Amino acid sequence: MPLPPLDPPDDIAFFIVEGTHRIAIISLNDYGFLLSAQMAQSYLGQAEQVLDRKRGFDREFFNEVNTLKTMAASMGCEYAQFETFCADCDRFGRMATRNWREWLSKNAVRAISHGYRARVSQHLAYKIRLFHSRLSAVLTEG
């Protein structure tokens, strides 16, 4: 006996599942720092849209939604700054060097900036994972 067809996926459930996959990609920097920052900004924009569509009538829910919106906007700004820094680092990495001193200096700066980008990326990934967890809890309530 064949199984009945599945219902179309619920928008919120789809957002949570897709968001979980995106957060994993962002956290691991599978596509590099720059693209991960762009993907995070895209996710945060979608999260704000989902929060705008979610309705609730109790004051605690309203406060939590406002808190999440504020967090999303703040993280969006942080990711935008990180994206700018990553783009500047990539542009610096493509600059030509004229002698061995410039080459050594350039590679020292690149090594330091890579370590900095890794730390910032890890910190932002931690924040966005916490945000996604809180968001998922709010979206699945009630």
Structure description:
The protein has 142 residues and is an all-alpha fold. Helices cover 81% and strands 0% of the residues. The protein has helices spanning 11-28, 33-53, 59-93, 100-140. The longest helix is centred in the last third of the chain and has 41 residues, at 100-140. The chain is elongated. The chain starts with 10 loop residues before the first helix and ends with a helix.
- What does the radius of gyration come to? 20 Å
Estimated share of beta-strand residues: under 5%
Based on CA inertia axes, which overall geometry fits? elongated
Averaged pLDDT, please? 89
What order do the helices and strands come in, and which of them pair?
Blueprint: H1 11-28, H2 33-53, H3 59-93, H4 100-140
In short:
With 142 residues, the protein is mostly helical. It is built from 4 helices and no strands. The N terminus is likely disordered.
List descriptors:
142 residues; elongated; disordered N terminus; mainly alpha
